[in-house]
Amino acid sequence: DGGITQSPKYLFRKEGQNVTLSCEQNLNHDAMYWYRQDPGQGLRLIYYSQIVNDFQKGDIAEGYSVSREKKESFPLTVTSAQKNPTAFYLCASSMGSWSENRQFFGPGTRLTVL
Amino acid sequence: KQEVTQIPAALSVPEGENLVLNCSFTDSAIYNLQWFRQDPGKGLTSLLLIQSSQREQTSGRLNASLDKSSGRSTLYIAASQPGDSATYLCAVPSRPPLKAAGNKLTFGGGTRVLVKP
């Protein structure tokens, strides 16, 4: 069954903690993305990766870090420097062509700061 | 900088009525436009991707139109059903395109739809 998986579904973080959100895809897609969604708002891009061992900052990268050591995996770490991390986090992937670039999304992780 | 707007933010219709969802964008030089559906607490499901060379794209009861010159796209859902209740988002890719792979998308804020039985 091809698709994108994210874990955990719910995550609780204490002040000052770093937490890592997992994203795995078996679609053989080159590009992967992390978005943040706040209530009643659209998605904002945190980081994206076009190839293994390479990634770029999106619009709201401060307080976040990523790695892309394998094509199928793109974990996101929410660091203690992120001042307002409570949000719904979505991972996505897409094929290489920019002209036909349908993005496919995982089920999301809801992060809450205690 | 590209800006994408969806108005209204929420819409309620009786079952059986046709739905008309609007998406506007400020930079008309887009490569394509994508419509997504999001159920509460879930990820996004891609509904339609319409290329810049196309004026329409259809899938079942869904039809998306694109008018680049006016910076607008419309998603039509015929004969709405309670199962169509969800938030619908549109998104366009950034310019210039990424060199290696993929594309950055700019999303609208979404339209939350409620279809009443």
Number of helices of chain B: 0
| Count of alpha/pi helices of chain A | 0
Q: What is the average of the pLDDT values of chain B? A: 92
Provide the low-confidence segments of chain B as ranges.
none
Number of strands of chain B: 11
Helix content of chain B: under 10%
Please state the structural category of chain B: mainly beta
Q: What is the CA–CA distance across the termini of chain A?
A: 35 Å
Shape summary of chain A: globular
What can you see in these coordinates?
The complex is a heterodimer of chains A (114) and B (117). Chain A is mainly beta and 114 residues long. Helices cover 0% and strands 49% of the residues of chain A. Chain A has strands at residues 4-7, 10-13, 19-25, 31-37, 43-51, 54-57, 64-66, 76-78, 87-94, 104-105, 109-113. In chain A, strands 2, 4, 5, 6, 9, 10 and 11 form a 7-stranded mixed β-sheet that branches. Chain A has a 4-stranded antiparallel β-sheet with strand order 1-3-8-7, with no helix packed on it. Chain A is globular, with a radius of gyration of 13 Å. Chain A starts with a strand and ends with a strand. The mean pLDDT of chain A is 91. Chain B is built from no helices and 11 strands. By secondary structure, chain B is mainly β. The radius of gyration of chain B is 14 Å and the shape is globular. In chain B, the strands form 2 sheets. In chain B, strands 2, 4, 5, 9, 10 and 11 form a 6-stranded mixed β-sheet that branches. Chain B has strands at residues 4-5, 10-14, 19-25, 32-38, 44-51, 56-59, 62-67, 72-77, 86-93, 105-107, 111-116. Chain B starts with a strand and ends with a strand. At the A-B interface, β4, β5, β9 and β10 of A face β4, β5 and β9 of B.
Structure at a glance:
The complex is a heterodimer of chains A (114) and B (117). Chain A is mainly beta and 114 residues long. Chain A has no helices and 11 strands.
